[in-house]
Amino acid sequence: MTAAAVSETVAIPEPTVVPEPAPIAADVDAIDRFLAGSPLAGMGNVFVAAAAMYGIDPRLMPAVALWESSICRHQAAAFNCWGLTSGVDSYGRLIFRDFDSYEDAIWAVSRTYGGYGLPTYAALCMWVSGRANCDSDYPGKVIATMEGIR
Q1: What is the rounded CA–CA span in Å between residue 41 and residue 36?
Q2: Nearest CA among 73, 116, 81 for reference residue 98
């Protein structure tokens, strides 16, 4: 029997169970629910895409935004809901980074976290203290928030 004859005689059955929605779609929906009513409402797809690009949990940056700015209600600088800095001035004060849009900021903060190359807890310590280990309760608060984004 030739390969052509085999392919003609073998029927592939139709699936009987509809598969669950892709995890990415579920993540977008969960993040959108979490961000509802905030300046970041409807941006779940941006968080998920940036997280996939930089290898971080898609719930991480929305959770950080809650603890850094009450989800953008008290921003450190233009479109900066995460307290991302670009250095210190000559007086030792933090210089908070401005962004052109929330989308630009989401990509930048996701790239920063992904660049740490650390597990979530250690990356959160880097964010808050500049060290991969810290005494702060901040990482635990952010992780608990992430767990609530479902």
Answers
A1: 5
A2: 81
* 110 or 17, which is more confident: 110
pTM: 0.81
User: Cα(84)–Cα(86) distance, rounded to whole angstroms?
Assistant: 7
Task: Give the C-alpha distances (Å, rounded to integers) separating 19 from 15, 16, 31.
Answer: 9, 9, 21
Site of tokens 């401005």: 98
Q: CB-based contacts of 18: which residues, under 8 Å, 6+ apart? A: none
**Alpha helices for the chain (secondary structure H):** 3-9, 23-35, 44-54, 60-69, 102-116, 120-129, 138-148
How far is residue 136 from each of residues 55, 92, 126, measured CA to CA in Å? 24, 22, 11
Residue spans of the domains in the chain: they are: 21-75+102-148
Q: Cβ contacts of residue 87 below 8 Å, gap of 6+?
A: 94, 95
pLDDT, tens digit, 9 for 90 and up, residues 27-52: 999 999 999 999 999 999 999 999 99
In this predicted structure, the answer to whether residue 135 has a pLDDT above a threshold of 50 is yes
